[in-house]
Fold:
Amino acid sequence: MENENNSIHPFEFDLICNFFKRLHRQGPGSPEATRLAAGFIGPLGPDAEIADLGCGTGGQTLTLARSFEGTITGIDLFPGFIDIFNRNMVREGLSDRVRGIVGSMDDLPFGEGTLDLIWSEGAIYNIGFGNGLRLWNRYLRPGGYVAVTEAAWLTPERPGEIQRFWDENYPRIDTIGNQLREMEEAGYQVVAHFILPEECWRENYFHPHRAAHESFLKEYPGNQAAEDFIGMQKHEQELYEKYHEYYGYVFYIGRKL
Ligand code: SAH
Structure:
């Protein structure tokens, strides 16, 4: 199974995780966006089985736990994130029904047809949108829901600079129309979709990044890889400011047929 992380040197992966664990969220999003998406699904009841795939440190899981009853299993590849995730749930008094485990989203520890809801914000890109939706379908009960965010082109055409950036970093980015079709082809009825507002990037993602840059670099004095990583982050922010009308994250909510 193709996985972008396989191409990252282990040291670099640790370095990236060490940066992102300072943040409440590891991807663009907001409590409002999570609640809005949850609102399309409605109550699932106290016996609901929910999975949050690529959960990171659990920023969105906290909102999810307040939006639904039932049990939530967070899964992430990085043990450092899962440690923080579980500490956060203890602190918030949620550890009796929200648990984080280390694992991969392409090898899930659930039985077929056992889940009521699969949630995944800013993470399905690791295995590809269509591929992930197809793969996860079997774990949902009929009528179960999937809610994911994915990077998308917001216009049919875009300037060369931003096209090249995505071609180099995530060539599988696609238009909303094509992603809706992929969701249908993967066996779901599309319940809703919406573009994440710009605050999800600015206030909730890039702003906390800027605060974390300094403390991170202090931990890696003279380390070129760490400096390159922060340089790349800054470049990403500049591109977003310049080209945000052409791309963004889209929330897709689907129901298994
Ligand atoms: N959902 C969180 C984190 C998004 S960042 C948020 O929105 O804030 C993407 C996450 O996917 C990271 O935590 C990364 O460790 C995780 N990840 C990457 N590949 C994965 C895989 N194959 N299986 C599970 N998690 C993975």
User: Anything to note?
Assistant: The two ends are 25 Å apart (CA to CA). The chain has nine helices and eight strands. Confidence is low (pLDDT under 50) at residues 1-7.
